[in-house]
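Progress note, project year one: complex with beta-D-ribofuranose.
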Amino acid sequence: MKRKIIIDCDPGIDDSLAIMLALSHPDIEVVGITIVEGNCPVEMGFENAKKVLKFMNRLDVPIYVGAHQPLKREYINALDTHGSDGLGESFLDSVAGYEQDMDALSFYSHILRQEQCSVIAIGPLTNIAQLIQQDKEAYDRIDTLISMGGCYKSHGNCSPVAEYNYWCDPDAAQIVYNAGKEVHMVGLDVTRQIVLTPELLENMKQRNAYVGDFVEKITKFYFKFHLEWEHLVGCVINDPLAVAYFIDPSICSGFSSYVQIETQSISIGQSIVDDHSFYRKPSNAYVLTQVDVDKFFDLFFTCLLENIHECEKN
Ligand code: BDR
Ligand code: CA
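Model obtained:
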């Protein structure tokens, strides 16, 4: 039986790769995609999710629009990283005629009472925090909760200590970590090791031009950004690791700990991992620290390059 997931995302270049991975794995069923403010405004994220679904010939997957802004903090997007269209300035054709019958929160309330589902959250946690505030019973029904966000020993990407998803909405992240369900924290410690290099991209294009060309279109801007700001030849693709870890947990390992998110001051958005149990609080997270990079790319390439074909194009 396929394991059912909801992807909560802000697509976003690496979010799009995560959606592609989830849709191309035979054991996973994506029952819905919910959009949150983050890399780009929520309406742009919605448009981008449709573009990815169109490429995958999977416009049957429902998309639901969620929060437009963080719970308390002023909204700051990441279009500097993801391009003015949120998809690496690929300026793909927009997809018209897609009806939505409910918003993200109504969808969660509904689906979590019908199906056993896990949630893979790869954007700021605003939607999930609002679900906790408005329908805790539905939230409690989530099977596994995976969140791409935070950092443990690794430095931040928005400040010396904060990663974007938690920095964008720290109050939401703090609510989620306090809500009584273990959060699998896929932070920068592990995602920073997932680097798509020009050689790997070239290899993708040779093995499957349909997929490789699409990935090149949406990552070109990301490559430039990484070279300019991080002096890295290649781009860090954070979000697909959260999906890969769900598919095969042996790709990553870590430890259980109490985690708190800083909501104020110079360290806003920092994920404080109490690895020495100073606070004497029960663990609320499984913090990933190790990743088998080869195993990740084996899975990623097998799914994208062998399971997605041009003949599926609309
Ligand atoms: C996270 O922030 C976003 O820019 C990416 O999509 C990823 O979810 C990495 O810090
Ligand atoms: Ca994201």
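The pocket of beta-D-ribofuranose (ligand 1) is lined by residues 12, 14-15, 39, 78, 81, 122-123, 148, 157, 163-165, 238-239 (CB under 6 Å).
The radius of gyration is 18 Å.
No further modelling is planned for this target in the current period.
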